[in-house]
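User: I'm writing a short methods note and want a consistent example. For Spondin domain-containing protein, I'll paste the sequence; you return only the structure tokens, no commentary, since I'll be parsing the reply automatically.
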Amino acid sequence: MIIGVKSRFKGVLLTSSALLALAGCHDGSNAEHPNTEEPVSVSYEVTVTNLTHAQPMSPVAVVIHSAGNLWQVGQPATVSLEKMAEGGDAAELFVDPMVLAHSSGVGLLQPGMSETLSVEVESGTGAKLSLVSMLVNTNDAFTGLDAYDISSLSEGQSVTFYSSTFDAGTEKNSEMAGTIPGPADGGVGFDSVRDDVNFVAVHQGVLSADDGLLESVLSGQHKFDNPTAKIQIARIQQ
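Assistant:
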């Protein structure tokens, strides 16, 4: 992953009654003007570009959260991530208790195309931004960004990432007919049965029928190299 980053009083003798009067005024002032700041809304724009040749990406899912991770390499995928990685459905990610705000793309992000999403969150939450999208002509491959701390971005500042592709490890990369939900096959998406290694890893890529996997419904054009997506995050408003 590559990151680019664009009353003091002097000389006065006070009587006890005067001190009491001053104390009363001081307490009343604090009550009327507490030293607290109201939270304000902070807005971000997230632009995603599909860098692949023939791998449409499922509607981009952006979530802001204050704790936790959407996934971790070497750890089992959550069911909500599994549903996104196998079928492109991010609905359960959006209702996770850790999520503070979210945004979703309007449809498939086609190869070579870009889409910008807006998301807003209150300041002072220690916000982290995560993003996921399935490569739909695969069994369970996805790309994205996990738990990037956006709380330190100043207004007008942006950062850019080039993201790799990950294997959810929940479905074998058989590439067989009926198992690929994208236009190359139109098969089944999410299947609750896990028949792979059951941990997230960097994806090894598509094999395809052109390279000897005879039962594959994919061709050489569906192969992909890392990075597979460009992600730019910009803070646009205090």
